[in-house]
Amino acid sequence: MNPIITALLLSFASAPAGLGAQPGQPWTIESGPRSSQVNESTARGYAALPASVLVSVGAEVSYAREGVVVQVGAHQVAVANGAAQVTVDGTARPLAHAVYAESGVVFLPVDFFRELLPGLTDGRVRVDVARRSIRGSAARQAGAVAATEEVTPAVEPVPMRAPQRKLVVVDAGHGGRDPGASGPGGTREKNVTLAVARRLAAILREDPSLEVRMTRDRDTLIALHDRARLANRWRDEGQPALFISVHCNANPSRSEKGYETYFLAEARTADARRVEAFENASVKYEEAPVGGPMAFILTDLRQNQHLRESSDWAQLVQNRLREIHPGPNRGVKQAGFAVLRGAFMPAVLVEIGFVSNPTEERLLNGEEMQREVAAQLARSVHDFFARTQQASASR
User: Fold this and answer.
1) Number of C-alpha atoms within 13 angstroms, CB side, residue 272?
2) Can you list the domains of the chain with their CATH numbers?
3) CA distances from 387 to 208, 368, 392 (A)
């Protein structure tokens, strides 16, 4: 999937507090009909923009220990923190100023965008430093005709395309040699999450307007960082999409109980950090866990336009679970879950109950509770798309 379908950036002025870079003048980032703004940073005495700007003009940005790797069309660009150059397809290209990281965000000097980016995109991206604007246009599909070209009317009427289905990616937490949490009665989290995820997918597939995918539909291990990548790969250009990861909570205290839903941001509470650490510990079962400081992802994704949508959907999930769940409503929280990183769509992780609590363990093992939880999660999906459609219609 081409990431150009999403305009990922909001201005730093609207981003959550905590970004350390000094804001400069705003830049306008345009990709097709979408437009957003991001402030340049002047923290090092020269103008620079976050590397995530590149995503909005069609690039894929991967975070590594020393910086970022950017895929722009057929070109691969390696960007190292502190270097006054980038490597394009193995060849060093000098920059007037150095790349740097500030509060976890990788910044590229403006001369990279002005001098290198247009050539890397075959002219599809235009950079106007004087006007502080970056304009990208989607690459033409095979056989497509530009709007400025004259088109001969077709002799036969062209049939209307069916409305694009909305994508829902259902992720069953853990799996394979990663059992997740274990309950006092021997329940394994991976089995409960798979059972609920299967039921959820089955309910959603009854709606012909939805395309439903599962990251795993059997007891197998899928790397945390691959789950969001799968979701992005399955999503077609412009397709509305959601990503939900189903988990069971655990706590050393068997009295803890209830349900909570997370979206991706830096954890604010000790309890959120505890849950984050437990769920992210699954990387120990993977052969090649993703490297690089988590802060690179967390601070960059704060600018993601899906942050607010993820938060809103998390609240819809909580509202629905409240109707059937006997445990306390522990609310919407935020944490840096690896499974949610890089999902270019609204994404949440729901903890449907504490497998470490004997009472909730028995409930989570029961088919009735699994059916009810799956049904309520499905309703939250419909709630989200209905709200989105209503908001679009009122504009």
Assistant:
1) 19
2) 3-136 (3.30.457.10), 166-393 (3.40.630.40)
3) 19, 28, 9
**Overall size of the chain counted in residues:** 395
Sheet holding 259-264, edge to edge: 210-214, 166-172, 241-249, 347-354, 259-264, 329-335
The pLDDT of residue 46 is above 80: yes
pLDDT tens profile 89-102 = 889 999 999 998 87
Burial of 158 (0-12, 13-18, 19+ CB in 10 A): exposed
Give the C-alpha separation, 269 to 343, whole Å.
23
Query: Distance of CA 375 to CAs 31, 59, 333, 372, Å?
Result: 37, 37, 22, 5
Sheet architecture: strand order including 105-109: 100-102, 105-109, 48-50, 34-41, 23-31, 133-136, 125-128
Residues 169-218 pLDDT 10s? 999 998 988 899 999 999 999 999 999 999 999 999 999 899 999 999 99
